[in-house]
Amino acid sequence: MITVLIFASLAGVILTLPQELLPGLVDSAEMQFGGIESGQTASDATGASLSSLWSYSTVTEDRYDHSLHGDQHELTPYFQDYENITNITAQLGSTAYLNCRVNRLRDKTVSWVRRDGEKIKLLTWGLHTYSNDARYSLNFEHPNNWKLQIKYTQRRDQGSYECQVSTHPPKVLSVRLNIVAPVVEIIDERGASVHEKFYKTGSTIELKCTISQMPQAQTFILWRHGDHMLNYDTSRGGISVKTDMSSSVIVSTLFIANATPKDSGNYTCSLGDVATGSVLVHVLNGEHPAAMQHGSGTKDLCSLNLVLLLASLTTLLNSLSAAHVR
After folding, report:
1. How crowded is residue 184: how many other Cβ atoms within 10 Å of its Cβ?
2. Are 118 and 173 in contact (CB under 8 A)?
3. What angle is formed at CA 22 by the lines to CA 21 and CA 28, rounded to 5 degrees?
4. Phi and psi for 113 in degrees, rounded to 5?
5. Do residues 189 and 296 touch, judged by C-beta distance below 8 A?
6. pTM of the predicted model, to two decimals?
7. Residue 197, strand partner residues
């Protein structure tokens, strides 16, 4: 632009010069640009010279602008969501997705690595997976998301990951993956965790299971009696399951009507293969009424222990009486 201004100023000065000075300028122009063609006047030569000067300045300006244009539009890749995906939380056993949206990638390559202190393990390069763990894969999402997929997440998957773009130096997006395990508990009527419950023959077994710390919504809760699944059991009858999803804690309640001693055993409430809670159920006949309960396990467990102690004392006294008679 400075060159253009100089030539424009020079052209203005030349046009205002007295006519007697033009021949000298024309002679100079002849030396600079090859002379005056036949039939041209000095004025024509001057115009041609100015035209040549202007053409030269225009070419120079174009080259300068082109160079400047190239500098301004040397576009490099950049991360679209740099501040939004630095922390990811996934549920144990679920599928985790780590997003990496890259704009203006052009001929560069995106890779995922796992960082453990100073150690770096390559997971993917472009669309190819280099991990020996088949749970890892590159799941590209059009138009620009180089998404890392981790199936069946385990506790050891928790840690730092990096999405890298092959610029010089490489552009790096760090992602922290957190693995959360749901907490499953079987509780009594007061909300306290319970591991053993007692029922009387003919009563209704009621077991309440709570599932908390679930980053991903899930509704399928399995109830089992030993190895037998109860959710869809129609052979026995009187079995029902009610699940409440109204709060952040899932509550699933199992009902078994007309309990018999066959219903005794270990009951489990599970969230797939991720987390399980269990309770040992005793269905007793009427010979030990003090052991029957439908509430807290602590008080009634003491009652059962007292009954067993009294039974043991009775047996001991009977043995002593028999020995005395002999």
Report:
1. 22
2. no
3. 105
4. -130, 155
5. yes
6. 0.56
7. 281
